[in-house]
Amino acid sequence: MSVRTWIAILTFSCLLPALTEAQIAFEEVTAGSGINFVGRSMGLSWGDYNGDGWPDLYTSNHAARSGLYVNNHDGTFSNIFPQKWTNPSSPDEHGAAWGDFNNDGYQDLIQMSGAQSGAGSSPDVFLVSNGDTLTDEALELGVQDPFGRGRTPLWLDWNNDGLLDMVMANLSRPDGQAPSRLFLQSGGQFLPQSLAALVPKLNSWFAQSSELLGDGRRFLILHSADGYPGPIIAIGSNPAVDLRAQLKMPITRNVTDVAIADFNNDLRPDLFLVGLNNKASDSLMVDSHTLKSSFNVNKAELGVRFTCECDLTFTLGPSWEVSPSAVFIGAAGAHPKSNTFVVSKEDMTVGGVALHTPGVSFGVYIGYDAPTETWTVLVSKASLTVINILTTSSADDEISDLQWINFDPSELLMADRLLMNTPAGFVDASNQPALTEKRACQSVVAGDFDNDMYVDLYLVCRGQASNLPNVLLHNDGTGQFTVVPLAGGAEGSTAGRGESVAVADFNNDGFLDLAITNGEGEAPFANGPYQLFRNLANGNHWLEFKLHGVLSNRDGVGAKVILTAGGVRQIREQSGSVHRVAQNDQRIHFGLAQNLTANTVTVYWPSGAVQTLNEVAADQILEVTEDATVGFTLSPSTLAFGSQARNTSSVPQVVTVTNKGTNVLTNLVLKLSGANPLQFSQSTTCAAIVAVGDSCTINVVFKPTITGNKTATLNVQAGGGTFTRTISLSGTAAP
């Protein structure tokens, strides 16, 4: 076992006075940080590009040049693009994720692109790092996926061979090409594996992984824009089978993002879902001189009516949805010269509205009624379109008496949903005061922001035409939440529209910080800033762990860590830290409240190795290296027997055991468990001692006695139980 103190900070009082009470408070530190982008955004990802132990930030700027902000260790960042990567960026950048795919100690970055909304192609980018320069090797490694409407990648080790594989979550294309897929790493390339039977037309923004049942099996959970969750698949299974019904997870509509964490410290991962109705329209007064409207039109006519004896400036967007020729001013239907134009009340031609067929004719129709000083703005189209309109008056004139025509902005709002993981399935625990208020939120992260040993939530919210205050929810330890006033100082910008959030302890003080983007959507409402919020800390203690796999993948993706302190047990998963177009820092973070030590810290590695650290001092960042003295692999990791007649035996299926550790394997123990262990049997050729590098086999037979679907788990232990691997078994008993 190797445990190295990577960074130790025994006190933060020399840097900043600690808060006297365990409360959550943030301070915006964007100014002077070097992170200064303003504009359209599509996610952000924390990683450690140069391996120096300080989180760096990659930003996907959608249509603009992406940025890589390297941590200077003093609260500031330096954008090293284009100096360290001179290749042109994709014109349609979406989510990205860091992962050390080649186990060289430096995290690499896969950046997805949108293939021109499915109408064309644009290759993904795979930036391979050597700790200094970044080289795009997407073509060589087989992950360009040029026709995929890429949204968010996920790193995982599907076949548990110690090499990271990836899932690309894509929206569906009209022609059916390039759905969401699994890419297996083999022989220095990534080979696409079809999940088409489960996801032929799935509109998926992201995928996540978690050990949902606490039994060692990890699951891939695919997002679906048509109802969350999409397919849930046991990682390593072949063929892939959708397990949603077995896991008893209810379907929720309009989910935009999900945080997976243990909210009541029962060592079972729970789910928190946020969402908004993206098909809704919106219009609101920002102030008495500014009206923002977003019309989501499909075979309909929507609009607004308001009073102002004034001249108005209109700005319409996006430009590819509406051009000056589609704008009709007054009864005569005059066209402006550009998408930004002034309409004067003194112009005699602005009176009335041009004749058209509502819901059939395409256009933006603007007219003024002088006797009542009333303006009317209508948007009509026979097919789906979203038109954004910014309306402003001079400082001397006020807009008032706003009326909505054929829509209600409150349709945007949705109820957040908390699903608590119980032995009987997932139970809706949303009926609590902090969660009954409807919101419109796009991104969510979970973290113990006050280090009190209980996981809190932070939500980034938005309207269709404007930004909304972000929300911070404090957890009392039982899964009951309260709203922190003003989000603890992190309500966010009023400019742009809230888009995503990612968490990292960027200054290595043991308290989780926030990076936020506000560039969701299209012009003229997407011009929002990136923001950085520093956690102001308090008197609570903490621990962080950087996992270093040896038999497992270098990042330790697929591991779980259980910490006990002061009689409280907490669990964290190293799942790649991905959510909608965003990635949190992959270091494992625990709050310890007033405990000065963690009594035990146990790491369950993907390889099956189990390591326990005792009496670990608080307030430090530790690197934990996997113990490779005992280690073996099982291939394959799942066995599917198909249909078998009752009371008959299947042909044996063979599992190969290979000793990849540095010591001989001894005391190999095989045990069947799970739902139907008596429907399977096993035997082995493995001797009492398996030499380093040698292999042996296990034969598994399916002999059902009762009809129906049958599952079990084969547990293989070595080293007196210090190293365990499992195989998932399934079959169907025919009459």
Q: Describe it for me?
A:
This protein is mainly β and 735 residues long. It is built from three helices and 59 strands. The strands form 15 sheets. It has a six-stranded mixed β-sheet with strand order 7-6-5-4-45-44, with no helix packed on it. The chain has a five-stranded antiparallel β-sheet with strand order 21-22-29-24-26, with no helix packed on it. It has a five-stranded mixed β-sheet with strand order 25-27-28-23-30, with no helix packed on it. Strand 10 (125-129) and strand 11 (134-136) form a beta hairpin. The two termini are 51 Å apart.
Global geometry: globular
Would you count the extended β strands for me? 59
- Category by helix and strand content: mainly beta
Uncertain segments: 1-21
In DSSP terms (H or I, runs of 4 or more residues), the helix count works out at 3
Q: What is the end-to-end distance?
A: 51 Å
Query: What gyration radius follows from the Cα positions, in whole Å?
Result: 28 Å
Mean pLDDT: 92
Largest sheet: 6 strands, mixed
Strand line-up in the sheet with most strands: 7-6-5-4-45-44
